[in-house]
C-alpha cells in the first residue's frame, strides 16, 4: 500500500499589480466596496506583450516545484493540469507543459473543475500513486482570467474578483507509513451549472457559423457570469460539509486541524469557515488580498506561500478545501 506525498511546491504570478484604485479608473467601483465584500486589495493581471499564458505560467510554477522537490524532469511519470482558462480550446495545456519542459512522452491529463480543479487534480494524482501506477506526478493549477473579463461597469461584479497566476506540486510515492495525502473527497451538483458559468465558446445547440455570423458585440456569453449571493450561500455550506467529511473519514475532529487552506474565493467566505471551525488566524492561510481569486491556481499558490513562510511543519494536519463553478467542491486531508 502506497501513499502520495507532496515533496515540492512552486508558484508564478505575473509582475503587473492591479490595485482596487486602478480598477476604479476603468469602471464604476471603489476600494471600499471591493475590500468590504471580498477582502481583495490587488490582483495580478498579465500585461499585454509579456508572453505569459496559462501554459507558460504553469511551466514556471512547475520548474520551481521540480527544483524544490530535488528531482529531475525525467523522473516525472504523469502530468495533471487544472484550469478553466486554457490557451487553446483544445488541446489542453497539459501537453504544452510536457513539451515545454522536455518531459518524455508521459501522459498529460487536463482537469476542468474550475475553483475545485486543483483538489480534483490532486485526487487523480493521489489515486494513481496509491494504486502503484505512477511514482512521481506533476500537478499544476494555472489561470489567466484577465484576458476574458468584462472590465467595464457592466462586468464589475465579477471582474474585480479574479486574478492571474499559477501554482504547482510534485507528488511522490511514500512507502510504509501514514504520511502524505490521507484522503480526498469530491462532489458535484450540476443543477446549478449556470449560476457560475462562461457559456461561450461552448457551442451547445448553437452552430459556430451562426455565432460568427451574429458578430454581436453585446453577446455577454463570452464573459463569465456569477450569481454572487447564491454562490456565496452554497459555498459556505459545502465548504463546511466537505471539510467535516474529510476529517471524519480519517477519524479526526476539527481540533486536529493545524492548517486550513481554503480555495481563495472570497476572504469573507474563508472567515466564515474559520469562525465556524473555531480556528485562529494562524490556522488558516489566505493570500486573496494580494492575488484575488485565481480559481484552480489559488490553492497551490496559497499552499506554496504558507510553506515558504514556515507555517506548515512535518506531521501537521493540513486541510485543503474548495468550492466553485459546476457546482463542484472537494477537500483533501494531508498528514504533512
Ligand atoms: N463595485 C461597486 N459596486 C458593485 C460592484 C463593484 N465591483 N459589483 C457590484 N456592485 C453593486 C451592484 O451593482 C449592486 O448595486 P445595486 O444594489 O444598486 O443593484 C450592489 O453593488 C450589491 O451587489 P451584490 O451583487 O448584491 O453584492 P454582494 O454584497 O452580494 O457581493 C459578491 C457580491 C462579492 C460577488 C458576493 O456575492 C460574493 O462574494 N459571492 C461569492 C463569490 C465566490 O465565492 N466565487 C467563488 C467561486 S468562483 C469560481 O468558481 C470560478
From TrEMBL:
It is found in: Cytoplasm. InterPro entries: ACP_syn_III_C, ACP_syn_III_N, FabH, Thiolase-like. One of its GO terms (molecular function) is beta-ketoacyl-acyl-carrier-protein synthase III activity. Residues 109-190 form the Beta-ketoacyl-[acyl-carrier-protein] synthase III N-terminal domain. Its EC number is 2.3.1.180. SUPFAM superfamilies: Thiolase-like (SSF53901). Residues 247-336 form the Beta-ketoacyl-[acyl-carrier-protein] synthase III C-terminal domain. Pfam families: ACP_syn_III, ACP_syn_III_C. The keyword Magnesium does not apply. The active site is at residues 115, 263, 293. GO terms for biological process: fatty acid biosynthetic process; secondary metabolite biosynthetic process. It comes from the Bacteria. Pathway: Lipid metabolism; fatty acid biosynthesis. One of its GO terms (cellular component) is cytoplasm. Belongs to the thiolase-like superfamily. FabH family. NCBIfam families: fabH, PRK09352.1. The last Arg residue of the ACP-binding site is essential for the weak association between ACP/AcpP and FabH. This is Beta-ketoacyl-[acyl-carrier-protein] synthase III.
Amino acid at each position: 500500500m502506497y501513499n502520495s506525498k507532496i515533496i515540492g511546491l512552486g508558484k508564478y504570478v505575473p509582475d503587473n499589480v492591479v490595485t482596487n484604485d486602478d480598477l476604479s479608473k476603468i469602471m464604476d467601483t471603489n476600494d471600499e466596496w471591493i475590500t468590504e465584500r471580498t477582502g481583495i486589495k490587488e490582483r495580478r493581471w498579465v500585461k499585454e506583450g509579456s508572453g505569459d499564458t496559462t501554459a507558460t505560467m504553469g511551466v514556471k510554477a512547475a520548474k520551481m516545484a521540480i527544483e524544490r522537490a530535488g528531482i529531475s524532469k525525467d523522473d516525472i511519470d504523469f502530468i495533471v493540469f487544472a484550469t478553466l482558462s486554457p490557451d487553446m480550446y483544445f488541446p489542453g495545456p497539459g501537453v504544452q507543459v510536457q513539451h515545454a519542459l522536455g518531459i518524455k512522452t508521459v501522459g498529460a491529463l487536463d482537469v476542468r473543475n474550475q475553483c475545485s480543479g486543483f483538489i480534483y487534480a490532486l485526487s487523480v494524482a493521489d489515486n494513481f500513486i496509491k494504486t502503484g501506477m505512477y511514482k512521481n506526478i506533476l500537478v499544476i493549477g494555472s489561470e489567466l482570467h484577465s484576458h476574458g473579463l468584462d472590465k467595464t461597469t457592466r462586468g464589475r461584479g465579477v471582474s474585480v474578483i479574479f486574478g492571474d497566476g499559477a501554482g504547482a506540486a510534485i507528488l511522490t510515492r511514500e512507502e510504509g507509513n501514514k504520511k502524505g495525502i490521507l484522503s480526498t473527497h469530491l462532489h458535484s451538483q450540476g443543477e446549478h451549472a449556470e449560476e457560475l458559468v462562461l457559456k461561450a465558446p461552448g457551442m451547445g445547440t448553437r452552430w459556430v457559423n451562426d455565432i460568427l455570423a451574429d458578430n454581436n458585440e453585446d453577446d455577454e456569453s463570452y464573459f463569465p457570469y456569477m450569481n454572487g449571493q447564491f454562490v456565496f450561500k452554497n459555498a459556505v455550506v459545502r465548504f463546511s460539509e466537505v471539510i467535516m467529511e474529510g476529517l471524519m473519514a480519517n477519524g479526526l475532529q476539527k481540533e486536529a486541524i493545524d492548517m486550513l487552506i481554503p480555495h481563495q474565493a472570497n476572504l469573507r467566505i474563508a472567515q466564515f469557515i474559520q469562525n465556524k471551525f473555531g480556528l485562529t488566524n494562524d490556522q488558516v492561510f489566505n493570500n486573496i488580498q494580494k492575488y484575488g481569486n485565481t480559481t484552480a491556481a489559488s490553492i497551490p499558490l496559497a499552499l506554496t506561500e504558507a510553506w515558504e513562510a514556515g507555517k506548515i511543519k512535518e506531521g501537521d494536519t493540513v486541510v485543503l478545501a474548495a468550492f466553485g463553478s459546476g457546482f463542484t467542491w472537494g477537500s483533501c486531508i494531508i498528514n504533512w
